[in-house]
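Fig. S4 source data, part A: sequence.
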Amino acid sequence: MTLVDMIQKILQCRILVVDDQEANARLMERLLTREGYRNITLLTDSRKVREAQAREPFDLILLDIRMPHLDGFGVMGELKAMGGDDYLPVLVMTAQTDTETKLKALAQGAKDFLYKPFDKAEALSRIHNLLEVRVMHTQIRDQNRILEEQVLQRTAQLRQSQLEVVRRLGRAAEYRDNETGMHVVRMSKASAALGRAMGMDEGQCELILNTAPMHDVGKIGIPDHILLKGGKLTPHEWEVMQTHTVIGADLLGREPSQLLETASLIALTHHEKWDGSGYPQGLKGEAIPLFSRIIAVCDVYDALTSTRPYKNPWSAAEALAEIISRSGTHFDPRVVAHFEQIFDEIQAISRENADPR
């Protein structure tokens, strides 16, 4: 900011003069006007300062101490009670020069003093100095706000890029054994709905919505003759198929990102079973991450009700009955209970995101 710009901004600052003696207030107004200040407000009733400040904040308040109804200390107390993190300079005008008055005013928020009767040149100098600090403070505050907005914007862009990578990888995995990839859309939306029903906050529900599509990303590393086999897998083929959990976790890695860390954990653990008979680690009960317990139910349900090369789709009622029958063995009973409670919503998600015919 150039010196000329600084002077212009100072002269445009909003100044409030508070003095119960109108003649004193007018005198200060004339002094400021001659100096070039253009936004000056006068108040002779100190009880109106709070309202005026709340309506449109001032850049400087010239405040008398001795006033009826509410003295200068009371005004500063109200201004302080209004809170905010802004820098509001208060220039106290008083005939009292004792230390006690000065210390009390400073404690209440005064930034400088004018002792009556004041010298005009001194008054203008003190006013200019306080407003210069105010302008610089405002400029720094605005710059910081712009920087914060830029950081938020770039963070959002980075997150959006991560989400796009996650979604594309998830779809890439699904396209290998699903014609449309709508499976990941249905099961991720169902997982978010189920998480919400179980008391997750919106941030957690959004996280499970965005990471669920990555659960089978490790299938990218499974050979086609195993992944697309129409018949039953041999023991060796089944061992290879199970490695998609570890492959998925390895693909996503352990980056310092909540999104990718969660997706990696889900890829690794979504085939674990409540009774400990799952893979790859044989986790049991609540040792299995809750996100994975939720996704396991929604994934199996959608797989059962979907058309696959090796099977016809089950009806919604048949698939629900199968889910319930596996409660306590394959699935967390609490998750199954909530799934059953919101089953109408699950069916609606399936209808709204059906595979194209």
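Fig. S4 source data, part B ends here. The chain has a mean pLDDT of 88.
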